[in-house]
Amino acid sequence: MTNPFDLTGRVAVVTGANTGIGQGIAVALAEAGADIVAVGRTPPTQTQQAVTALGRAFLSVEADLGTLEPIARIVEATRARFGRLDILVNNAGLIRRADALDFTEADWDTVVDVNLKSAFFLAQAAGRQMINQGGGKIINVASMLSYQGGIRVASYTASKSGLAGLTRLLANEWAAKGINVNAIAPGYIETNNTEALRADEGRSRDILARIPAGRWGRPSDLGGAAVFLASSASDYVHGTLLAVDGGWLAR
Ligand code: NAP
Fold this sequence. Notes:
Blueprint: E1 11-15, H1 20-31, E2 35-40, H2 45-53, E3 58-62, H3 70-82, E4 87-90, H4 105-133, E5 136-141, H5 154-174, E6 179-186, H6 195-199, H7 201-210, H8 223-230, E7 241-244
Parallel strand pairs: 1-2, 1-4, 2-3, 4-5, 5-6, 6-7
Helix pairs in contact: 1-8, 3-4, 4-5
């Protein structure tokens, strides 16, 4: 019997794969058989070691996703090395914290440009390639703040709520073209992104108290959802946000 979760022979582009959730997803996709293109501004040394140790091919594309300059280059480099692009994981993202009354334009643009604008235009470039190939899988990394308002993170909430909307829009336009566009919405995961929250004793205690699973998530917790949404097991799943949150939203 064929394994519907098998990714052997597929090529996955993962942005922000050097650390955190991106690294967890890249390694999980490689474990399922995919070759990995890691996109980011910091060398993905650890991720490369983990992926090649699994016997998968690995390509690193240096790119600052604060501008659209690298978008075409990422797809070109992937096609030049592997001849195809089957899976895109729009994971790179950042956060800025300030009261709404004091929020600056710089903190707005820095976050929205990476989390939303580059994610859309990379999906557009990858989508064109996937349509030429007959299909593909796009996974956006959303957030609890794709559902909730949050506090002191105006540009982050706007970007992640926007990314949820774009996930649905792209699914509407591309489902019939063989592309599945979905999102993973991580709960509270132990990465650089949440370092400040975890360092704040009060916030950290309050967050933990609301998580039914009784612990913060780890990057590897996102692997199963990513493999599902990247594989043929999810061929009839379009435009959904899959929460991987230890039960946070159920509260
Ligand atoms: P992280 O450890 O800070 O990783 C963020 C990744 O994005 C890093 O690889 C970072 O690269 C990359 N990145 C940021 N700005 C970039 C830019 N201008 N160009 C290229 N790459 C850039 O945090 P994480 O938690 O793993 O975050 C990954 C994704 O998950 C983000 O979209 C985040 O919003 C989302 N998320 C996280 C949580 C959580 O609890 N941790 C929850 C929900 C959603 P550098 O290492 O070079 O900075």
